[in-house]
Amino acid sequence: MYALIREKREVTRSEIGKLTGLSRTAVTARVRELTARNMVIEHEHALSTGGRPATLLSFNAAAGVVLTAAVGGSRTRLAVCDLAGDVLANADIDQEPGLGPNDLMPDVVKRLDLMLTESGCRDARIFGVGLSLPGTVDQQRGSSVDTPILSGWDGAPLIPYFSELTDAPVILGNDANVIALAEWRVGAGRTFGDVLVIKASTGLGAGIISGGALQRGAIRAAGEFGHNKTAAADGRACRCGDIGCLEAVAGGWALVRALRQEGRPVQNLRDVVELAHGGDALARRLLRDSGRHVGEVLAAAVNLLNPAALVVAGDVAAAYDIFVAGLRETLYGNATALATRTLQVVPAALGDRAGVIGSAMMVLDQVLGTEAIDGMVAASR
Predict the structure, then answer these.
(1) Which Pfam family, any one of them, does this sequence belong to (predicted)?
(2) Domains (ranges, CATH) in the chain?
């Protein structure tokens, strides 16, 4: 029932009964539990036109907060979100490459703690913490499993860093997956049930929405296309330790390296994009070539998954036109005409906020899911 109220935002008791099949007594009992916990607010319909006004049940997004941290190779985005996943406060931590968890995570926790005060949420109930990382994550161990971009993080327990801030659950997710979750629900992919969202930043990854569900794979490693082999990278060393990976020619770190070798003072992909917008011919060529290499590798994924939309996210989205000019060239040239007949290639709609919004949604799906709410209500009886 709570899931229904969350989805519709406002609904009457009689509508709940019709949609769920619950008796009036059962609806009343459940509403009593939810209103007592301030999870649901009951109020009269403001547009009543006469007679006894209808009573509405509204989802109370202000009943608590979720804290989120989207860790990247060159920047970590932080946010305090309400229970609808809307951002109440956000901040960035720009970081030097190679920082380990002991260098970064204490700053993340300290900044989130400060943001609770800045957002006026110091006394709010914290329902959970969402932590997204580039690469595969292991929720049971509370660590990353295979994250070449973040040296020294694999296997390091991350959940204990939050113990002094909150005892709420800490949920880990892959960065491309949480971006896909956000773009699918409220962003560029919201009208589609089958979406392929690529994140092109320091590294490359994809989030797969198929049949209206996020696909994580058997060991939560789905979407790691940045380490597919490509002829364009033959003989080139990748940061993962292998040779010939797509990232070695198309990842943000590879573009930064190429520009530095030509004397450009760039630190990250955002600097590359700025150079390109300033008219630097080499930066523009590298971004277009990156799109060309990505499109060539993704053609097989488009054939296999047949998405309705391909959403371009990550730092490269700020140079969408340049990047996608190259991507379209090889994607449409290598994928089948049938798979691309109605395919839409679109820019991400949520920009830099996608990671923290998606991380909040990841947490809310768990802590406000049917099983969690049923357990909460049962424990109070």
Answers:
(1) ROK
(2) 1-59 (1.10.10.10), 65-176+355-379 (3.30.420.40), 188-349 (3.30.420.40)
